[in-house]
Amino acid sequence: MTGQNSFDKAMKIAFIDTDSLNIHYQYVKDITEELNKEIKKKERRLERKTTKLQNEFNQLQRMSSNMTQMQLQAAQQRAVEMEREIQVMQNDLSEELNEEQMEMQLKLVEKLDSFMNKYNKTEQYDYILKKFNGSEILIANNAYDITDTIITLLNKDYLESKSPN
């Protein structure tokens, strides 16, 4: 076979420690704080509704000795409905928070992919790998670690995008 094989050149490889990225990238800190605020807000809403239903249940229990059989059955049915209502609210809250967390994670991935594609136009890496606790990369030579550079550039871009022009 004549001609030069494209595999003869040395590959340019780097890696990013995504655990470190998640700790030091300001965007991650901000969206985590935002998510935590949303969680607390929704938990307070659930607590208020639960307290209201618990008070209603307690009132029904206090009044039960003065109720007719029919009223007692209606009160028991209402108690079951309240319990179901609380469970539905808890499940809905959990689903909402999971969706919001997935949405934020997707935004982060899109933001990182977009940045890395732009970054690699000038750096020309053949591969940029993700290293994190539990990843398939067990050992990595720190000479190929571009995490600090990427975090610095990401934070610079993010803070510039947040500041009013």
Describe the model.
By secondary structure, this protein is mostly helical. The chain has one domain (6-162). The protein contains four helices and two strands, in the order E-H-H-H-E-H. The protein has helices at residues 18-24, 26-63, 69-123, 147-162; strands at residues 13-17, 127-131. A two-stranded parallel ribbon has the order 1-2. Helix 1 runs parallel beside helix 4 (147-162) and helix 2 packs antiparallel against helix 3 (69-123). The chain is elongated, with a radius of gyration of 27 Å.
The biggest beta sheet is recorded as: 2 strands, parallel
CA radius of gyration is 27 Å
Mean pLDDT: 89
Helix/strand-derived class?
Answer: mainly alpha
Strand order in space, largest sheet: 1-2
Estimated helix fraction: over 70%
What are the low-pLDDT stretches, counting only 5+ consecutive residues below 50? none
N to C succession of SSEs: EHHHEH
- Number of separate strands: 2
Task: Describe the structure concisely for a colleague.
This protein has 165 residues and is mostly helical. The chain is built from 4 helices and 2 strands; from the N terminus they run βαααβα. The chain has one domain (6-162).
